[in-house]
Amino acid sequence: MEWTIQELAARAGVTSRTLRHYDSVGLLPPSRVGENGYRYYNPAAVARLQRILLMRQLGMGLPAIAKVLADEVDTAEGLRAHITALEEERARIERRIRAVRHTLEALEAGAEPRMDVMLSGFNDRYKDEVVSRWGERAYQVSNDWWHGKTLDQQLAWKKDTDDLVAAWVAAAKAGVPPTSDRAQALAARHVRWLSAIPGTPTAEGDRERSIAMVRGLGDMYVDDPRFAGMYDDEAGAAFVRDALHAYARTHM
């Protein structure tokens, strides 16, 4: 099966002049040239044009495209690489769509859009730490889960989180021991909160890594200055840490 240059141009959404230019720079020669001077393109040439157009859409210039194609040994591997690049681009576009949708929802609800809701993911600020502790997949899955929520769902989640923190602060101020029923009930609630986040070890039922995560979070609440004041003071953060450690030790 072959297509003429006019047929290929029409199918590909480009001009015949573009295809002739690709030929002149050695990027896409026709499969053959007929006695009448017509250029013809077979399936292999069409597949090559597909690659060229994909790379053009990704912002690559013709010299760079020519180098990629010249250096390429395995066409199938090259196509797999392009699929990966396209999937990454799709993910970026979907994140932008969700961000704009959040803004629209806020405006339609008569609320002033909040920058932290519109532009921040669930754990964007802690990406490096999440990746180093629990891996790239844990970050990506949880971040996609957060960005997939509507504005109302994000605000509801933030409220639940604030309520949990407030309950910890109240228990610390009441002076109950970290191993008390009240503190351990809060620790169990904290672990359920973690388990609701896809990608985390607690959500996936990985016992050993879940224990490490719960203990690690407890330590982080005390040691990391970013959490200073989250639980009112250092004593409050230490109370949460000790309660989580005790829960991990006896209930996980």
UniProtKB/TrEMBL annotation:
Record's keyword annotation contains Repressor: yes
GO molecular function: DNA binding; DNA-binding transcription factor activity
Chain segments annotated as coiled-coil in the UniProt record: 69-110
Organism: Streptomonospora nanhaiensis
Protein name: DNA-binding transcriptional MerR regulator
Pfam families noted in UniProt: MerR_1 (PF13411), TipAS (PF07739)
Family matches, as InterPro entries: DNA-bd_dom_put_sf, MerR-type_HTH_dom, MerR_fam, TipA-like_antibiotic-bd, TipAS_dom
Residue ranges of domain HTH merR-type in the record: 1-71
This protein's UniProt keywords: Coiled coil, DNA-binding, Repressor, Transcription, Transcription regulation
